[in-house]
């Protein structure tokens, strides 16, 4: 009985460890990131470039972020991909956002089957490997402890150069299908400093931009007259704290054309400017959201310690 109990414990431990390894391996890829699944500026090169920055493995998930009724996504053969033919898809999804799990290795091809959409660049081709690459753990090396030495206090880090941010990157400043999550996702993780520059890339007379208060941002209503109507608009961040921007064209702000950022005091110098993203000459008239960017996250401490708990129980049964 004791042996049977130990065998069950070991089996459960192996199962939990396998589940733990799988959770580490799976990755969720948001197709196009902030651009979403829409007409890409410049054609299909946008999705080809995005795919070149990703590593796809069996078990990963693709998220096609689009508005239901405006687009769809279908997996097709290579010939159908090349000819933009969606008549006989391998699979298709009409409700957005669409989550597609990669269940096999090799090439996978996806298009939008709406008339003209694939031809305008809504097509994605990726290569999927059977399992994600795992870097081997480094071999332990013998180390010696050097005698303690006095070290001078580190010098303060020099201020970085001012950065120019193109709001929404390829998405530009427009009405994002799905709501303001696209601009929330874009701003997440960026380090805005006083002296940096925001570029709102939009066609003149189709959109505008104005900085507003928190209450005006929440209500999408402003009495400000400092509205910039000519695009692209460049706004220098002159003060720290929270900054809020909206489009005042009726209906645009409630539909998600609004941006909130936090600016840190000091740090950015005025020269030389650095531009991590270049505004496109003509932003897309339509756009999509970037989903709540689901991405692989570190497993919780409770899950990580489950194998150790089972092994401890096995030890107790064996030796007590």
Architecture overview:
The protein contains six helices and 16 strands. Mean pLDDT is 79; it is low at 20-24 and 271-305. The chain has helices at 2-25, 45-51, 78-83, 181-187, 214-219, 301-319; strands spanning 28-30, 56-57, 61-64, 73-76, 91-93, 98-101, 106-111, 123-129, 161-166, 192-193, 197-200, 210-212, 233-236, 241-246, 258-264, 269-274. Helix 1 (2-25) packs antiparallel against helix 6. Helices cover 22% and strands 22% of the residues. A five-stranded mixed β-sheet has the order 2-8-7-4-5. It has a four-stranded mixed β-sheet with strand order 13-11-9-16, with no helix packed on it. It has a four-stranded mixed β-sheet with strand order 10-15-14-12. The chain has 320 residues and is of the alpha/beta class. The protein is globular, with a radius of gyration of 25 Å.
């Amino acid at each position: 009985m004791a042996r049977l109990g130990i065998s069950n414990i070991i089996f459960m431990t192996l199962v939990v460890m396998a589940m733990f390894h799988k959770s580490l391996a799976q990755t969720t890829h948001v197709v196009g990131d902030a651009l979403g699944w829409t007409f890409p500026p410049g054609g299909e090169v946008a999705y080809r470039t995005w795919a070149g920055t990703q590593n796809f493995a069996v078990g990963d998930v693709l998220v096609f972020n689009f508005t239901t009724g405006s687009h769809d996504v279908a997996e097709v053969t290579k010939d159908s991909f090349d000819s933009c033919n969606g008549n006989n898809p391998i699979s298709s999804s009409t409700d957005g956002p669409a989550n597609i799990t990669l269940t096999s290795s090799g090439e996978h091809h996806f298009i939008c089957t709406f008339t003209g959409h694939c031809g305008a660049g809504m097509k994605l081709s990726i290569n999927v490997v059977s399992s994600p690459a795992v870097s081997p753990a480094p071999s332990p090396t013998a180390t010696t402890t050097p005698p303690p030495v006095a070290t001078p206090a580190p010098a303060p880090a020099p201020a970085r150069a001012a950065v120019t941010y193109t709001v929404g990157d390829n998405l530009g400043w427009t009405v994002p299908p799905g709501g303001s999550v696209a601009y929330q996702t874009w701003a997440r993780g960026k380090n805005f400093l006083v002296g940096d520059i925001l570029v709102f890339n939009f066609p003149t007379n189709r959109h505008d931009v104005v900085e507003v208060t928190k209450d005006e941002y929440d209500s999408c209503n402003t009495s400000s007259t400092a509205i910039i109507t000519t695009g692209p608009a460049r706004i220098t961040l002159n003060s720290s704290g929270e900054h809020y921007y909206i489009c005042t064209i009726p209906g645009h702000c409630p539909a998600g054309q609004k941006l909130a950022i936090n600016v840190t005091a000091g740090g950015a110098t005025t020269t030389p400017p650095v531009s991590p993203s270049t505004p496109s000459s003509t932003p897309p008239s339509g756009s999509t959201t970037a989903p709540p960017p689901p991405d692989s996250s570190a497993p919780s401490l409770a899950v990580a310690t489950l194998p150790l708990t089972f092994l401890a129980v096995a030890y107790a049964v064996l030796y007590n």
